[in-house]
Design a protein that fits this description.
Layout: H1 2-27, E1 34-38, E2 43-47, E3 58-60, E4 64-73, E5 82-91, H2 102-116, E6 123-129, E7 134-143, E8 146-154, E9 159-167, H3 173-185, E10 188-189
Antiparallel strand pairs: 1-2, 2-10, 3-4, 4-5, 5-9, 6-7, 7-8, 8-9
């Protein structure tokens, strides 16, 4: 019994040392990147933080089903905190956009654009997103004390939005744009 107790104590100490070394390397400015694969939606992204959301919890909206994933970089420091967000939308009456005409997909995209881009001052422009040239919209702007940069695009099956948010009092638009560009460029389509 004593041997079992000492073995457990040794394992607990080792686990504590590992946790401390991970914490200190993070505190030294080494950001650990986390790649998350969304097999059910056909893509992966990399962020400097883990994204919460398991794909089973959804937000039921009037016309759409929304799957949300969120993560926060530097949550312990309000002055450096940045929120990473992914939203995957599909119309309630279809499993994916694949069976819809291009005109129907475009109409849905325009409706969702208003929901996905929250800022009153967002400058919105049409874009072709990723190396697959998905049609979409990109924007950046501010609402109150929140600064954002986001993209909404149609991958042929779903409407996907990627966004980063931060406080206007602590993170400049240039810094947020850089973080968004890293986030958006990490998007990889999976066939």
């Amino acid at each position: 019994m004593k041997k079992f107790f000492y073995l457990c104590l040794l394992l607990a100490c080792c686990a504590g040392c590992v946790a401390c070394s991970e914490k200190s390397s993070h505190q030294e400015g080494k950001t650990k990147e986390v790649t998350r694969t969304f097999d059910q939606f056909g893509f992966s992204v990399t962020t400097p933080c883990a994204l919460e959301g398991d794909g089973t919890s959804v937000v039921e909206m009037e016309k759409y089903t929304l799957y949300e994933y969120k993560g926060e970089e530097n949550p312990e420091d309000d002055k450096k905190a940045v929120i990473y967000y992914i939203g995957v939308r599909t119309p309630k009456d279809v499993e994916s956009l694949e069976g819809l005409s291009e005109a129907e997909q475009s109409k849905i995209m325009d409706e969702v654009k208003e929901l996905a881009i929250i800022s009153d001052t967002t400058k919105i422009e049409k874009v072709s997103f990723s190396d697959r040239q998905y049609p979409g919209y990109a924007g950046s702007g501010e609402r109150g004390t929140v600064r954002e940069h986001c993209v909404l695009f149609n991958n042929g099956k779903y409407l996907i939005s990627l966004a980063v948010f931060a406080s206007t009092t602590s993170v400049t638009q240039d810094v947020l744009d850089e973080k968004f560009n890293q986030f958006a460029s990490s998007f990889k389509a999976i066939d």
